[in-house]
Amino acid sequence: MLDLTTLDAKDTDGKVKQLCRKAIRPHDSLPDLPSVAAVCVYPNFVSTAKEALSGSSVKVAAVATAFPSGMSTLKVKLRETKWAVNQGADEIDMVISRGKFLAGEYDFVSDEIAAVKEECGPAHLKVILETGELSTLDNIRKASDLAMEAGADFIKTSTGKIQPAATLPVTLVMLEAIRDFYYRTGKKIGMKPAGGIATAKLALQYLVMVRETLGQEWLSPDWFRFGASVLANDLLRQIVKEQTGVYQSFDYFTKD
Amino acid sequence: MKKKQKMQKKAEIKSALKINFSTDWKYDPAPESADHIKLEKKYDLFINGKFVAPKKGKYFETINPAKETKLAEVAEGTEEDIDTAVRAARSAYEKIWSKISARERGKYLFRIARIMQEKARELAVIESLDSGKPIRESKTVDIPLAAAHFFYNAGWADKLDYAFPGRKAHSIGVAGQIIPWNFPLLMAAWKIAPALAAGNTVVLKPAETTPLTALKLAEIFQQADLPPGVVNIVTGAGATGAALTRHPDIDKIAFTGSTDIGKLIMKSLVGTNKKYTLELGGKSANIIFEDAALDQAVEGIINGIFFNQGHVCCAGSRLYVQESIAKNLIRKLKDRMETLIVGDPLDKNTDIGAINSKAQLEKIQSYLTIGIEEGAQRFQPACDLPKSGYWCRPTLFTDVAQSHRIAQEEIFGPVLSVQTFRTVEEVIEKANNTPYGLAGGVWTDKGAKVFSITSQIRAGVLWANTYNKFDPTAPFGGYKESGMGREGGVHGLYPYVELAS
Q1: CA-closest candidate to residue B288, choices B439, B451, B457, B419
Q2: Alpha carbon of A197 to those of A125, A190, B280: distances in Å?
Q3: Would the pLDDT of B13 be above 90?
Q4: What CA–CA distance (Å, rounded) separates B396 from B414?
Q5: Rounded to two decimals, what is the model's pTM?
Q6: Nearest CA to A89 among A130, A45, A133?
Q7: Total beta-carbon pairs less than 8 A apart between chain A and chain B
Q8: Quick one: closest CA in B to A209, which residue?
Q9: In angstroms, rounded to a whole number, what is the distance separating the alpha carbons of residues B317 and B436?
Q10: Strands B201-205 and B231-233
Q11: Can you say whether the dihedral through the CA atoms of A204, A24, A92, A44 is positive or negative?
């Protein structure tokens, strides 16, 4: 239920390959650990990631639509999306136009999501609301409803570039929106809190929230993902502690 | 025709949608440790600063309602014991408490409050053991709030001239106080703190099923060097309480409990010069308008009725939902009830603990049958219940009419009756159509609506977009058969002073 991410302007093929290696086998001394759910990269690294992950269950997600600001024309966004899908991306992470949303131009935001969804074809669409810029829980609820109606497969809190990123209250509001949408339409939508979830303990609180809001079926990588690369190492540390009885130094866990 | 059938089928599928809360992700037990708790085998009466054996030598058991095991034996106070206690209180009043400076009184109260905070964990565990309430509640509500009442009233002790500007506040003498089993320590604090702050002395009778934290409080009084006789605690059942209200040398009676007993007390006070305050039952309306934040309202409804197993006089036990959102809201409510955890009061995950006593459980169960006989629909989640102990699943009744007994009578358990309404006028009429008038809740996104509606509901406490919020600075008390007088805030000092101009 975890996505590993590298979204730096200084990313290279080498960096992406290393991350993919970790995604397949998170900790070499524990070979039985499952792989992570997906690796999230910029569109130009999709083919690199795809190749590095071939034969594994790990999916490739590409951020598109002028990530992280979303400040570009629809035409550019659509071409970027199409290109990433053609490169082999299994999932597309788009950002909504927050400026337009705050200006009340909901039709614009909705049409944009619908258009991107069409370009995605078979790829899953995650819609990033960038909740840290929406300011109120009312807005977050409104944006969640709007994204789901427009065709999102997943709704995601943040790009990771803006603070605050994912928080418990924001995630609860989005989970409640997903539940109400499910009851209204019968369609299940996935949830991805991203950024700010660094420890296993905090992750557990999120999982409790999912369990108590959406129940059993959402407790799966198909419907719930953590976008938190730092979390991976704390999880590994807890798993090793469970087996050995003592906490290992972080030096024993690879950063990439 | 085909289109219509298709639409109908779609609607059927949608209404059959159900979120599956019976997950394979189970919670491990997370019990609060009770190892550090020291309970005596036998507790005597606390009179004149010392624990003394009851004159008739009788004791009764107090049990843990979650396990049906004995926690301790507690003395049964009789008329003779009450008399000794009242004499001790009178003497302490005349010789010490009315003589020392108001600042000194305040210092004692501050000291008691601080010791309560230091012993908060111990008090919380004992409260949960003795009453059955979840440790989460005793830790976050009962004990901190009890200490807060001492802190708050300690502040008033030397500022009574400012509480009643232009008047001189005199103490009245000896107060006889009888408290219920639902918030044992908190109710003791509600009663004792303002009485002492205003310069009175006290004889307190705790409820027979939950006397332990009051006796622990007696130990705190000893530790705080509170002068002997200022507070006396006489445990026992109804007869002990009756002896206290009858005693001729009591100046004021403060009672919290059922309306039936409240009426008896009121009758027994006729022709005497005793002042009195009564905090009695309730059947409070929790009103949800279509423009409310529904998920928040659901949390408020749950808190309103299932807090402390529904053993709350101001519980929001009548739910009124606007018809336009009723279906949606009730589904949310049922979903939320599926995730409630009923069980071990000492487990930190527990939402609903044990019913306080066997007698109370039987009373609640009789209403569960009455509801069905009256034609209402009953819903209970499929939660597991422990084998021994007194337990009741959280219960929801829909299709309830105003004339049903489950909508009229106080059940004092985790049972919610739901009715719908269409207009503002209708819901105000329904909310007020009750012999009670203790509390109520209104849920709406519009501020103006809040003020317009709360001012038309005849109840002592009204919450807007929240429920069961308590604070020592806020007065609490009822209209009609829910009681007389107020406790808390400046209003709570009134019953303990005589005002001279």
Answers
A1: B419
A2: 22, 18, 48
A3: no
A4: 9
A5: 0.94
A6: A45
A7: 36
A8: B339
A9: 12
A10: parallel
A11: positive
Q: Which helix (H) or strand (E) holds B180?
A: none
Q: Which DSSP symbol is given to A105?
A: -
A253 to chain B, closest Cα gap in Å: 28
What pLDDT is attached to residue B161? 94
Q: Could you give the residue numbers annotated as active site of B?
A: 279, 313
* DSSP bridge partners of B405: none
- How does strand A38-41 pair with strand A59-63? parallel
Identity of the residue numbered B306: F
Binary contact (B21, A183; C-beta < 8 A): no
Phi, psi (5° rounding) for residue A121?
60, -120
Is B21 close to A216, i.e. CB distance below 8 A? yes
**Pair B51, B75: CB distance under 8 Å:** no
Q: Which residue has the tokens 């400046």?
A: B490
- Enumerate residues 335 to 374 of chain B having a beta carbon within 8 A of any beta carbon in chain A: 335, 339
Looking at chain B from residue 20 to 49, which residues have their Cβ under 8 Å from any Cβ of chain A? 20-25
DSSP code at position B140: I
List the CATH code of the domain at A2-252. 3.20.20.70
A29 alpha-carbon distance from chain centroid: 27
What CA–CA distance (Å, rounded) separates B441 from B261? 26
Cα–Cα distance measured from residue B33 to residue A222, given in angstroms and rounded to the nearest whole number? 39
Query: Hey, what domains does chain B have and what are their CATH numbers?
Result: 42-280+480-500 (3.40.605.10), 285-464 (3.40.309.10)
Plot region of B152 (φ>0 → left; ψ -120 to 50 → alpha; else → beta): alpha
Backbone angles phi, psi at B170, to 5 degrees: -105, 145
| Closest alpha carbon to B398 in B414, B376, B424 | B376
Q: Is A156 exposed, middle or buried (0-12, 13-18, 19+ CB in 10 A)?
A: buried
Q: How far is CA B239 from CA B72, B215, B243, B414, in A?
A: 20, 19, 6, 29
Place B25 in a pLDDT band, splitting at 50, 70 and 90: confident
pLDDT in tens, B252-306: 999 999 999 999 999 999 999 999 999 999 999 999 999 999 999 999 999 999 9
Task: Classify B499 as helix, strand or coil.
Answer: strand
Residue B170: which H helix or E strand, with range?
strand B168-171
Name the 3-class secondary structure at B489. coil
Six token digits for residue B159? 């500022």
ipTM of the complex: 0.91
B17 closest CB neighbour out of A176, A182, A211: A182
Which residues make Cβ contacts (< 8 Å) with residue A218, sequence separation at least 6?
A178, A188, A190, A191, A210, A224
Q: Is B13 near chain A, with CB under 8 Å? A: yes
Structure tokens at A235: 């999880």
pLDDT over threshold 90, residue A29: no
Q: How is residue B30 written in tokens?
A: 């997370």
Residue B25 to residue B28: CA distance in whole angstroms:
10
Residues 6+ apart with CB under 8 A from A198: A228, A230, A231, A234
Q: What is the DSSP letter of B387?
A: S
Closest to B317 in 3D by CA, of B253, B404, B193: B404
- The answer to whether B445 contacts chain A (CB < 8 Å) is no
CB hemisphere CA count around B5 (13 angstroms): 2
Q: Which residue in this structure is represented by tokens 């977009």?
A: B465
- Rounded to whole angstroms, the Cα distance separating B444 from B289 reads 5
CA–CA dist B394, B384 (Å, integer): 12
Q: Under DSSP, is residue B290 helix (H, G, I), strand (E, B) or coil?
A: coil
